[in-house]
Specification:
By secondary structure, the chain is mostly helical. It contains twelve helices and two strands, in the order αααααβαβαααααα. About 70% of the residues lie in helices and about 5% in strands. The protein has a two-stranded antiparallel sheet with strand order 1-2. The chain is elongated, with a radius of gyration of 24 Å.
Length: about 350
C-alpha cells in the first residue's frame, strides 16, 4: 500500500515534456507582455490626448494603473528573456533578483494605487465639496505610493534565488531520475529560511492584505453613504446613479488587480513556510506557472471595462472618429466621462464637478 502511494506521488513527467512546458509558458508570458504593452500604451495615450488625467485624483490614478502595468512589463521583459535563455542558476541569480524586485515593486504600487482611488471615491461620497485637487497633489501622492512600494519590496530582492524545479523542496523527493537530471524548467524562488519567510510575510501583509482590507472597507462605506444620501433626498437619482456607476467601474478594476496578483503573493508566502511540501509536484509546478501567468494578464481586459462603463471610449479606442471630425466646427470635442454626459458642474453637496475620464 505504501509503495503504491509513493509511486503515485512521483512526478512522471519526462525531460522533453518539461522542456516543452517551459517553452510554452515562456512564449505565453512573452505574448502577454507584448499585448499588455500595446494595450496600456493605448489607454495612456487616449487619456493624455483627451487631457483628462488631471481632472481629479481618481482619473489620475486610473491613468497611473495603466502606467504602472506598462512599467512592469518594460522592466521585466529583459530579465525574463535572460532567464529563458540561460540554463544555469548561478548566472541567472542577479536577473532573478531583479525580476522579483521589479515585479514585487509594481505589484505593491498596484495595490496602493487602488487604495488611493478608493480613498478619493469615498471622499467624493462623504464630502463632495472638499475634493478640489491642487496641481501638485497627484505627484506627491505618486511619490508616496512608489516609496511605500520600494519599502515593501526591498526584502524580496534579498531573498530571491534562481533554482531548477527539481531543486525546490516540494519536488526533491518525488521526481524521476530523468527529470532530476533535466535543466528545465527553472524558477525564481524564495530562500527557504527565516529571511525568505520574513520577506514574503511582510510583503503579503504590507503590499497586499492591508491595502485590500482598506480598499474593500472604503468601497463598502462609499456604497452606504450613497444609499443614505439618496434615501434622504440629499442627492438626486441622476447623481446617485452616476456615482454608483463610477464606484462599480473602479471596483471592477480593483477586483481585476486582486485576482491577477493575489494568487502569486499568497502562494509565494505559503511556499516560504513549506506549506505545499506535501502537495504533488505537478500541482506545485502548475500553481507556480499559473500564478506567474496571471500577473501578466492584469489590465488586458481594462479596455472592455472602460467600453462597458464609458460607451464613448469605443470611439477613441478604435479610432472611428477624431476629436475634430466628431464635433464639427465650433464645437468642443465630446469626451467619455466617468459621470453621465448630461451632468454639469453643480455648486452643491449633490455633485462635486463634471469629472471626465478618457
Amino acid at each position: 500500500m505504501s509503495s503504491s502511494s509513493k509511486e503515485e506521488d512521483v512526478l512522471l513527467m519526462s525531460c522533453d515534456t518539461a522542456k516543452q512546458l517551459a517553452r510554452i509558458s515562456e512564449a505565453t508570458v512573452f505574448s502577454l507582455i507584448s499585448l499588455g504593452i500595446v494595450i496600456n500604451a493605448t489607454v495612456c495615450g487616449i487619456m493624455l490626448r483627451n487631457k483628462c488625467v488631471l481632472k481629479n485624483l481618481s482619473n489620475f490614478f486610473v491613468f497611473h494603473l495603466s502606467a504602472v502595468d506598462l512599467i512592469f512589463r518594460l522592466l521585466t521583459v529583459g530579465p525574463f528573456i535572460y532567464l529563458s535563455t540561460v540554463f544555469t542558476t548561478g548566472e541567472a541569480k542577479i536577473p532573478c533578483k531583479l525580476f522579483h524586485f521589479f515585479s514585487a515593486t509594481c505589484g505593491a504600487a498596484f495595490f496602493v494605487t487602488l487604495v488611493v482611488i478608493s480613498v478619493d471615491v469615498y471622499r467624493d461620497a462623504a464630502s463632495p465639496l472638499k475634493s478640489l485637487m491642487k496641481r501638485r497633489t497627484p505627484f506627491l501622492v505618486v511619490f508616496g505610493v512608489w516609496l511605500y512600494a520600494f519599502i515593501c519590496s526591498g526584502p524580496v530582492m534579498y531573498s530571491a534565488q534562481s533554482v531548477f524545479y527539481t531543486e525546490i523542496p516540494e519536488a526533491t523527493t518525488n521526481v524521476t531520475e530523468e527529470l532530476r537530471n533535466c535543466s528545465v524548467p527553472k524558477l525564481c524562488d524564495f530562500l527557504r529560511n527565516w529571511g525568505g519567510q520574513l520577506s514574503s510575510t511582510l510583503y503579503f501583509v504590507m503590499a497586499f492584505l492591508a491595502p485590500l482590507l482598506v480598499m474593500v472597507t472604503l468601497f463598502l462605506i462609499t456604497y452606504i453613504y450613497l444609499h443614505r444620501d439618496h434615501s434622504n433626498g440629499t442627492i438626486s437619482n441622476e447623481t446617485a446613479n452616476a456615482k454608483r456607476k463610477v464606484t462599480r467601474m473602479l471596483s471592477v478594476l480593483s477586483l481585476g488587480v486582486v485576482i491577477c496578483w493575489g494568487p502569486s503573493v499568497f502562494i509565494s508566502m505559503l511556499r516560504s513556510y513549506d506549506v505545499l511540501n506535501d502537495a504533488p509536484s505537478d500541482v506545485v509546478l502548475i500553481l507556480a506557472i499559473a500564478a506567474e501567468l496571471m500577473k501578466f494578464m492584469n489590465s488586458l481586459f481594462n479596455p472592455l471595462i472602460f467600453a462597458y462603463y464609458i460607451p464613448s471610449f469605443k470611439k477613441d479606442w478604435f479610432g472611428f472618429c477624431s476629436c475634430c471630425k466628431c464635433c464639427g466646427p465650433g464645437k468642443k470635442p465630446e469626451q467619455p466621462s466617468l459621470r453621465p454626459k448630461h451632468l454639469h458642474m453643480i455648486q452643491s453637496t449633490e455633485f462635486r464637478d463634471s469629472q471626465t475620464m478618457m
